[in-house]
Specification:
heterodimer; A: MetI-like fold; three-stranded antiparallel sheet; extended; B: mainly alpha; MetI-like fold; two-stranded antiparallel ribbon; about 80% helix; flat
Chain lengths: ~425, ~450
């Protein structure tokens, strides 16, 4: 038996092995894709209910006697503030369901509408006192979150009583219940009641935090990159700086949170829960990303540009700031946007510095207490109410939307301004 | 004045000084030769006016709280100063709170302290504003007096700019030092109350410390071994998923896939790396964990609702693109001649990969895997949301375990005083985490670097 025969005999097995190996590779790629698809589909399906909200139409009697207002005279905001709106809503509900008499049933009846309804009514009347009059005011108020879940998903849960289901049926027959687009989700801040909760506060918190991050990390990052790439002498200190930057890029984010807590809050006494501290911590985190990207961009500017500028008498500093930096700017900005996208999705270090407080107010500046989108996701995902799951998933979609937009801008910048020298 | 308005004031004054300096140099230039452009003289003047003022402002901001604090302490009545240091701090904090909230305290002596504080703060700000303005103006005057034709303004300006660039690149060092010092100091304070041996080798973790001295059963025990084991268990599950899948993905994409497929598949997989960890946590806690539990129950296994398996699997998926992109880099760095040589001897492509490319790329792959492991150890949100809270010493992936990062988060979120062993324990855990990931990173970066040099 010669060598050729030995090889030929093994060929079939070897080819089979080759096929199998390729198949493993395909499977591995597929695993990644399948998980990505599962993740996205799961979140989109979970998020859908959050974008619509169930509303109930109430015809509220708003004549002066019912409101217990003086029969004559101007309706000042003080007068209107004193009206018992909660009682008004309850009265309207009782009128809708005259058959309800027992205490227990009445309580169930009142739970149909969101506890925010009275405030809506209050705001409506205070803003337009002209609405007060003999004709009843027809308004759509939000249903309570349990009723909302029941009506939208048509699932029977233990949180909705049988009596309440009958009420909903009656409302449906009278065309007094509908689902509408949930604008509250974008205009309100956090709330204990899912139907009144929104992401505006978290969005603005993220905005302020990212603003601080950008203002700190971009200039410092570019300056560090310029120094290391253009001016730094080859010595131990430069090496040490480089090792440090590479290591910082791999330090767990939660450790940066510990740094922020110990240094910014306990040592410097900066306010807890504020975008200022959050932004500073995140800028320390994104700094390595920006420095590494900026260095690559500066390095890719060909030496001929530098030499030409030096040749006509520019100083080294002028070469860098007048010629190298503008040419490297697209690359630097791409890196900066990617760094900002990372910062936008970061949660753990912000938990450390107290950005998980329950905050209802919309932050107006960098020293107000605030929360950010990812932390809001974390907070809501912990809530027992089912409606919060949908809100969480919807917030994730918003966050992913922002991240996609940022990355798309980065890709566009790279494609549009990338130069091959 | 507010700090922000002071900064605006300084910026405004330096803008004026820039214009003055430039215009003056311009007029000199018309008269004779200058050694630099007028803008350089302008910049120099602006630097002289702004830099000293900014340095002073910074120093003031650092020392002002201490000064105000001491002023408040000096006004305290004897009944307070005779108390222990902690009680005095508490009292002063109450005063500061009253000042900040604007609510007048009912205690008259406290009211007096608050008034002193407000007065002192006002005085300090007035003094600061006056000094800043004087400093700015004298800086301008000094710079203008030096506007001689022989002065090389550009060199001065560039020296300062270079210094600023240098300081900025030092921020990385300062951050590292800050991390080390902050976790180290708090950890040392923790080890004063809990011996380091107990912490490192103790097998019971229940960080509830007694509120009252005579309380039973909550003396708190800080044996971190269950946390280390839990962290390792979840990381191991993650690596078991991520390393084979990531490596095979990299091999397939770099050796088999057509350029077209490669160019569209790579960015798609990178999306996995760009998804925030809190999203993975949500997915793990609300979808994967219940699913695993259901499957487990249907085949007769008891699975905890916060099983290590769910957190580990999702973490593994998160790390896949990390492993695959690092391995991809090292695999493509293997010289083509080695592939060609192997194929020319009659080896199939998979044999070439297994017997030539992987061994050649092994150091780089190992480096990448170590980096991925350090990621897994330090990952927080997935485990906070999907892993358990109770520290159980087990290596059964179907049970709930807790990790170092979970405990750091639970110990530090929520209101508590900063000096209790409970919060300090979080810093000790942080120190462990930092040290572990640092060692992993240094080794990994060293290997990767060595490997690159080999083929360059």
């Amino acid at each position: 038996m010669n060598n050729t025969e030995i090889v030929k005999r093994g060929l079939a097995r070897r080819y089979a092995r080759e096929k199998r190996f390729q198949l493993y590779g395909r499977c591995a790629v597929m695993v990644g894709f399948i998980f990505l698809a599962l993740l996205l589909v799961d979140i989109i399906v979970k998020a859908m209910p959050a974008f619509s909200v169930t509303e109930i139409r109430l015809d509220v009697a708003v004549d002066r006697t019912t409101l217990e207002l003086p029969a004559q005279g101007a309706l000042t905001p003080e007068l209107l503030n004193g009206v018992n709106y909660s009682g008004l809503i309850k009265q309207t509900l009782r009128d809708l369901f005259p058959e309800v008499t027992s205490r227990k049933d009445k309580k169930l009846l009142y739970q149909l509408v969101s506890s925010g309804a009275e405030f809506n009514l209050h705001d409506l009347l205070v803003n337009d006192p002209g609405l007060v009059g003999p004709s009843p005011l027809s308004i759509w108020v939000k249903a309570d979150d349990d009723i909302d879940t029941f009506y939208k998903l048509e699932t029977v849960t233990s949180r909705v009583d049988e009596r309440q289901m009958e009420f909903v049926d009656k409302l449906k027959n009278e065309a007094r219940i509908r689902t509408a687009f949930n604008t509250t989700f974008f205009t309100a801040s956090d709330s204990r009641e899912p139907e009144q909760a929104g992401i505006r506060g978290a969005l603005l918190g993220s905005f302020w935090t990212l603003l601080v991050t950008l203002l700190v990390s971009l200039p410092v990052g570019i300056a560090a990159a310029i120094y290391l790439e253009e001016f730094a002498p080859q010595n131990r200190i430069t090496d040490f700086i480089e090792i440090n930057i590479n290591n910082l890029a791999a330090v767990p984010s939660i450790v940066f949170g510990l740094l922020g807590l110990a240094v910014f809050i306990n040592f410097f006494g900066l306010p807890r829960s504020a975008p200022l501290v959050g932004g500073l911590v995140l800028s320390l985190m994104t700094l390595p990303t920006i420095i590494i990207a900026s260095r690559a961009a500066i390095k890719s500017v060909p030496p001929s540009i530098r030499e030409a500028a030096l040749g006509v008498g520019a100083s080294h500093m002028q070469v860098v700031f007048h010629h190298v930096l503008p040419l490297a700017m697209p690359g630097i900005l791409t890196g900066a946007i990617i760094g900002m996208a990372q910062a936008l999705g970061e949660t753990a270090p912000l938990l450390m510095i107290g950005m998980i407080a329950f905050i209802v107010d919309v932050p107006g500046g960098i020293t107000d207490s605030a929360t950010v989108l990812p932390v809001q996701i974390y907070l809501w995902s912990d809530s027992p109410e089912r409606a919060f799951t949908a809100l969480t998933a919807a917030t994730i979609l918003v966050l992913l939307g922002f991240l996609t937009a940022m990355n798309a801008i980065a890709i566009y910048l790279r494609k549009r301004f990338e130069r091959r020298w | 004045m507010q700090t922000s308005s002071l900064i605006i004031l300084i910026i405004g004054l330096s803008a004026i000084s820039y214009l003055t300096g430039r215009n003056r140099a311009q007029s000199r230039r018309d008269a004779g030769r200058l050694l630099a452009l007028p803008t350089h003289y302008g910049s120099m003047t602006a630097m002289w006016s702004a830099l000293p003022a900014l340095i002073l402002l910074l120093a003031w901001l650092i020392f002002e709280p201490g000064y105000l604090h001491s002023r408040v302490v000096s006004t305290l009545p004897d009944s307070v100063t005779s108390l222990s240091a902690e009680r005095i701090d508490l009292y002063v904090n109450k005063v500061l709170l009253a000042v900040q909230s604007g609510v007048a305290p009912d205690d008259p002596s406290m009211q007096r302290s608050a008034n002193t504080y407000i007065e002192a703060a006002k005085q300090s700000r007035r003094l600061l504003s006056a000094i800043l303005v004087v400093l700015c103006l004298s800086g301008i005057a000094f710079a203008l007096s030096r506007h001689l034709t022989r002065l090389h303004a550009r060199r001065r300006v560039e020296a300062v700019v270079k210094l600023v660039l240098m300081v900025c690149s030092g921020v990385a060092i300062v951050t590292t030092i800050g991390i080390v010092l902050s976790v180290l100091f708090e950890s040392l304070r923790f080890f004063e109350s809990v011996p380091i041996i107990d912490f490192m080798f103790g097998t019971s973790w229940s960080p509830q410390t007694a509120i009252r001295a005579d309380q039973v059963g909550s003396s708190g025990s800080f044996g971190a071994v269950p946390l280390f084991v839990g962290t390792m268990l979840i990381s191991a599950i993650a690596m078991i998923i991520a390393v084979p899948v990531g490596l095979m993905t990299a091999i397939y994409l770099s050796e088999y896939a057509s350029p077209k497929f490669r160019n569209s598949a790579k960015p798609a997989l990178e999306i996995l790396a760009g998804i925030p960890t809190v999203v993975y946590g949500f997915f793990a806690a609300l979808t994967v964990a219940p699913f695993i539990r259901e499957v487990g129950t249907s085949i007769g296994l008891s699975v905890a609702s916060e099983s290590a398996l769910a957190a580990g699997i999702v973490m593994g998926v998160m790390i896949i693109p990390f492993v695959s992109s690092l391995s991809d880099d090292v695999i493509t760095a293997v010289p083509q001649t080695m592939r060609d040589g192997s194929l020319a001897l009659g080896a199939t492509q998979s044999e070439t990969i297994k017997k030539v490319i992987i061994p050649a790329a092994l150091p780089g792959i190992v480096g990448g895997v170590l980096l991925a492991a350090s990621r897994a150890v330090g990952e927080t949100m997935i485990v906070v949301m999907a892993a358990g809270l109770s520290a159980k010493l087990t290596i059964n992936p179907l049970e709930a375990v807790t990790t170092v990062t979970v405990q750091i988060v639970t110990l530090l979120t929520g209101d508590q005083e900063f000096d209790s062993p409970k919060t300090l324990a979080a810093f000790a855990l942080g120190l462990m985490l930092f040290a572990t990931t640092l060692v992993l990173n240094v080794i990994a970066l060293h290997i990767v670097r060595k490997y690159r040099e080999q083929y360059e």
